[in-house]
Amino acid sequence: MAGREIALPRRALLALTACAAVCIDAAAEVHASSFAAELAQAVRAYDIATTNNDVAALSWLIADDYMLVNSDSSVENKSQYLADFHLRGFNLDRYTMKEPMLRVWGHFALTGGLLRLTWTQDGARHQRRLRIVHAWVRAEGRWQIVYTQLTHIPEVETSPHA
């Protein structure tokens, strides 16, 4: 009987350990799902803010140490990036992200895809095909963009003989 008395608490401990692991895994999934939902909301807010020239919202969504690498390889910080939205006559058109990409690793995420960016600047219309990647970090209870990389995709010319 003595051996059974020891085995029962050991079994109970093992069962509790197994339950705790399952509960932790379930909590992590709920947490990750919550983070992904928060990130999706931040991405939507960013997309709306860029097409509405909403500098206040962009300032909230862009980290203070933000870095943008433009498609021409120039580099901008947060204040330089936001300055464009203050330019008279500058406006980005609404865009649709093709081949959207989303990867979340805890408090870090990448979003992006392909887009045709069209905009007005100094009264002239511009357009460019781009692949864009945003690096997001979740800190202080919110997601912020810390880095953006734009890659210019040349237009494919079609030959009349093709």
What does this structure look like?
The protein has 162 residues and is an alpha+beta fold. The chain has a single domain, classed as Nuclear Transport Factor 2, Chain: A, CATH 3.10.450.50. Helices cover 40% and strands 38% of the residues. It contains 3 helices and 7 strands, in the order H-H-E-E-H-E-E-E-E-E. Strands 1, 2, 3, 4, 5, 6 and 7 form a 7-stranded mixed β-sheet that branches. Strand 6 and strand 7 form a beta hairpin. The longest helix has 50 residues. The termini are far apart.
- Low confidence ranges: 12-31
Query: What is the succession of H and E elements?
Result: HHEEHEEEEE
Major β-sheet annotation: 7 strands, mixed
Number of helices: 3
Mean pLDDT: 81
Number of strands: 7
Structural class: alpha+beta
Radius of gyration, in angstroms, nearest whole number: 24 Å
The N- and C-terminal alpha carbons lie at a distance of 88 Å
Shape: globular
Strand content: 35-45%
Instruction: Return the CATH architecture.
Output: Roll
Q: Under CATH, the topology is which?
A: Nuclear Transport Factor 2, Chain: A
Query: Roughly what percent helix?
Result: 25-40%
CATH class: Alpha Beta
What number of structural domains do the residues give?
1
